[in-house]
Protein 1
Amino acid sequence: MNRILLRVSRRGAVALAATSLLLAVGAVPASAATDLCVSTNGTVRVQMGTATCSSVAGPGNVAIARGANSHATAGYSAGDRNNRATAAGDNSEAFAGIGNGNTATATGDGSGANSGVGDGNTTTASGTDSGATAQGTNQTAIASGDGGSAVARFGTNSKAIASGDDSFANANGGDHNLAIASGDSSSALAVTGDNNTAIASSPGCTALATGGGATDRC
């Protein structure tokens, strides 16, 4: 009897979680609702239009795609948990997986967000045709400029922000590195070593901080 009650309870919890998730995504505009996909814990719950999605069975894995030809993936292999991928722009793509607690959000048309190969990584790509990649532990990459690219890899607690149009920010190969490219067509590279800071605020300039504890601005 207890086993039956437990099974019913679990089914009810899954149904309630799925209903809550559908209510959360149900508030999207009518134009976006024609292309919508929701997958949780390894199961596709909703699929409409050209949006596609997938998730690996595991608690907290959620993939939501809304927008024409959008795609979201949460989790990659067995054991991945608490990964969330949201692709909300036309032709956008979001991936969160190969680890736990990763978050990827792509809201710009043609944007891509990739978080994984580690735990607790966060990416946001909101600019049109922008791209953000975070790999390691607690890495953050944000690309808000159109055509901007932000990369934080091979380290822990580093941050790359590309807010200028066609800008590039790279925090790579160390811990606690910070790269900010706010000028259009600018580049900021904080690489190879820890606690480097590169800030490129002027259009077309390049800031390079490398070796450990270095700071460069342009």
Note: The radius of gyration is 19 Å.
Protein 2
Amino acid sequence: MFKQPFKKNLLPSGGLQQIQKNLNAQRKLLDIVKNGLPENLAAHCLHVTTKSGKVTLFTDSSVWASKLLYLRKPIMDTLSLNCSAPIRSLKIKVLSKQITKSQAKLKPATSSALKFLAQANEIDTSDPLKVAMNKLITTLQKNNSSS
């Protein structure tokens, strides 16, 4: 019998609505924080979460995190004025860099490398690995000729 990862009584009837509600609340908190900061610092504030009066602010580098730490008191004061629950602590964390599609672009294989691979890979229909390698070489050659 399969285990159920989500028990019915743990999720409210509108589980997705609850998640959306939490995300909207976090977005509002982020806007409050950004509005209380100078523009150069606000641009590096990525996300805010809160739980039981403990706020976590996420930024994109350790340099900006240390600058935001110097503004801990003003950030907490701004949040306290705009939130119903008292803010007891503020943590600042750095999110790891995410690779975007433009950063992850691979260099095309050179024609000499493809020629070497084609020569090294003998066509043998009984070996599935060689068949797959031959298909890969053909695809790479087509991609190189089209770009």
Note: The chain has a mean pLDDT of 81.
Protein 3
Amino acid sequence: MLRRSSGDSNVTGTLIIGYGNLLRGDDAVGCHAAHELEQHYRDDPSVEVIATQQLTPEMAEDVSRCAFVLFLDASSAEKPGTIRQSRVLPGNAPGGFTHQLTPSSLLSAAQQLYGDTPEAICITLEGCSFEVGNKLSGGARLRLPEFVRQAQEVVESYRPQKSRADEILQSQ
């Protein structure tokens, strides 16, 4: 699991979680996007990036500390190459221990365990091939830059607005 954080345990910024099976072709597109976004936001302490094989219950604490979470995943429900954005709301969390968490159940766990849940969006890229293999299909590779661009656009849209004074201070 790749993880980059500012080291501050009270982060209130953005958490990006890209996930998917690295050995199932296009299922890994969320992880590939997370790696690219980690490079883009490497000097930004308000953005934490996680690339992982699956969502886990332990992530509920990370989720509860953020103002916004962006989930990145592959899908196989529509035409290959389609990119979809959807709002994520807390949903029914499965009872007991499970390896089948969804973004909704992870938000629900954060709410139940820590009393808070951030705003969240999930962006999916419809994959072309989910066969055993550690490479993205040609179609997924072609759409990955747009997938990453949309992720950056969403992250920027959820940033707190800076005052003019903040901008002047940063430029000095």
Note: Residues 1-9 have pLDDT under 50 and may be disordered.
Protein 4
Amino acid sequence: MQTPICAPIPEGSGSMKVSKRGRTALIAGAWLLLLGLLSAPLSAQTPRRKSASPADPELDAVLKRFDEVQSNIRSLSAEFTQTTVNPVLKAPMTARGRFYLRKPDSVLWEYVSPEAMQFAIDQGEYTGYFPGRQHAERRDVHRWTEQIFRFFAVGQASAELRKFYDIRLEDAGPEMKGSYLLVLDPTKRRVRKRVEEVRFWVDAATFLPSKVAYVNKAGAARTLVFHDVQLNPDLAASLFSVQIPPGVTVTNGFTDMGGAGSPSATH
């Protein structure tokens, strides 16, 4: 169900001590990566590469059913477990939370562990809130709203995805039996610089997302496994309006998890 101003998956060749702030940045990297990709200069784009993949009847059949389900998505919610593997870490990091989506343009990632965090886009405005740090950030993202849904492959027809990705079908693996694995290879240079590929598993019965993995050229990876996926739940519009309490410092822009950023103010 598509950044010096964000924290991409750091590259490296050996483990090192990572600060609490750095660990938080790595945990929340899916959001920061997304925002960085969307805010990259448009001049960095290159024309779409033509796929050399031969016709695949099985892939076509899977995408046809995928499209049917995508066209019926009005809202979506799921619990998620996120695992980050990175050369700078001695061991994988695990985070948990819940994901909410409401078409046409509202999305919320709500982390509950190891640190409470909220990342939302609603009515063209991004809000990030880190209650433990008494820090929040906002930015107008109207121009990127469609790309946000495309990046996550949510609510997008395969024909639209193919404008930005080459798609192929691979074996889902023994741990994901009962799923189809769609491998998305970015065709835009600005995306390829940060994401080598996106691996997207859909449940073979419901064709709803069950797992997604982002891999970069350095071998760092971020995997999200979805649980309790709900199709078209009744989600109130107010859910996507992150409430910032008085006294919280609010930064205008995307910061490095509370680091130096654009002008700030106390809410």
Note: Confidence is low (pLDDT under 50) at residues 1-18, 35-52, 256-261.
